[in-house]
Write a structure and sequence with these properties.
Layout: H1 3-9, H2 21-38, H3 45-56, H4 60-66, E1 71-77, E2 80-86, E3 93-98, H5 112-122, E4 124-129, H6 141-156, E5 162-167, H7 169-183, E6 191-195, H8 207-210, H9 220-231, E7 254-259, H10 265-277, E8 282-287, H11 294-297, H12 302-318
Parallel strand pairs: 3-4, 3-5, 5-6, 6-7, 7-8
Antiparallel strand pairs: 1-2, 2-4
Helix pairs in contact: 6-7
Length: 319
């Protein structure tokens, strides 16, 4: 099924108010300028990790000065740490967010603003585990940590509706986590929200090349090079790292969000189609003229607000 056919066959939710063309263009081009300069395909993963932290890390105190009712807590799982963020007085559910960063960058500290937004939009207490990063810790280290974090979260917050979410690599990790939970007969989340998930480290999707000119940041070179940092000796088609190749039967409802101009479009599209074929409830929200992770990186656009409305409605139906 082609991209256009998928849009016709799917409830196409990216149809809310659109931003003015000039505002969208300026936002997208600025996003691409920053990301391609700071995170090129062949830079050192350690260098890019440090850049990501300098660029995105937000101290708790800074956020709390602006939002006095914001509550942070520290938790542990194994020898790792997990931060919780609560931006609402009485959350109705719990959400574990697995951060993006191509498995070699990102942290709870650099995702605090996004965790806060997730908490506010979803009326949830959000937990962000600090999973191990590549290349120091190759696959399946991140998945092992995600499993441990989920089991600890179930112990911390029993009998509360629980969701898993993730963006980019974290979206693929969230899907791999659900497959592992099902296979180990462990409790599954009530649903999953996957932002621009990276689910295919074999780069077999047609959009890798079809959207190369429209994606202002990512490219085949990015995906192939960055996959190598995490894969180690694992086959790129192994479902633990490329859950697009997993059996998705028995998974909970999913909401997948992807921009129609990003190279990872097929990573979301194929998961959506395979989920439907396996009897899983799946919704694909396609952002028209949108880029990678747009609800998180370009939240001021009308297209992002439309996406957040879909996310809040999806979570609210199960809470």
């Amino acid at each position: 099924m082609t991209k256009s056919e998928t849009m016709q066959a799917t409830a196409f939710h990216g149809m809310g108010p659109e931003s003015p063309a000039w505002k969208r263009w300026v936002s997208v081009q600025a996003y691409g300028l920053v990301t391609r300069r700071l995170f090129p395909a062949h830079a050192s993963p350690v260098t890019m990790r440090a850049r990501f932290e300098r660029f995105a890390r937000t101290p708790r105190e800074k956020l709390q000065r602006k939002y006095p009712n914001l509550v942070f807590e520290d938790h542990g799982f194994g020898d790792r740490e997990m931060e919780s963020v609560q931006a609402v007085e009485a959350p109705t559910c719990v959400l574990m967010h697995l951060h993006g960063g191509a498995y070699f960058m990102g942290s709870p500290a650099s995702y605090r603003s996004r965790s806060m937004r997730l908490s506010y939009r979803c009326n949830a207490e959000v937990f962000a585990p600090d999973y191990r990063l590549a290349p120091e810790h190759p696959a399946p280290a991140a998945l092992e940590d995600a499993l441990d974090a989920w089991c600890e979260l179930r112990r911390l917050r029993p009998d509360v509706p629980m969701f898993v979410s993730g963006d980019s690599a974290g979206g693929g990790l969230a899907l791999a986590l659900m497959v592992a939970l099902r296979d180990q007969r462990l409790p599954l989340p009530d649903g999953a929200v996957l932002f621009s998930p990276w689910t295919d480290m074999s780069t077999s999707g047609e959009s890798i090349d079809d959207n190369d000119r429209s994606d202002v940041w990512l490219s085949r070179a990015h995906c192939e090079t960055w996959a190598g940092h995490y894969l180690g000796d694992v086959d790129p088609r192994d479902p633990r790292v490329s859950p697009v190749f997993a059996n998705l039967e028995g998974l909970p409802p999913m909401l997948l969000l992807v921009g129609d101009q990003e190279v990872l479009f097929d990573d979301a599209r194929q998961v959506h189609e395979k989920a439907l074929a396996a009897g899983v409830t799946s919704t694909l929200h396609v952002g028209r003229r949108m880029q990678h992770d747009w609800p998180l990186t370009l939240p001021w656009l009308h297209e992002s607000r439309d996406a957040w409305s879909s996310i809040a409605a999806f979570v609210g139906r199960a809470c």
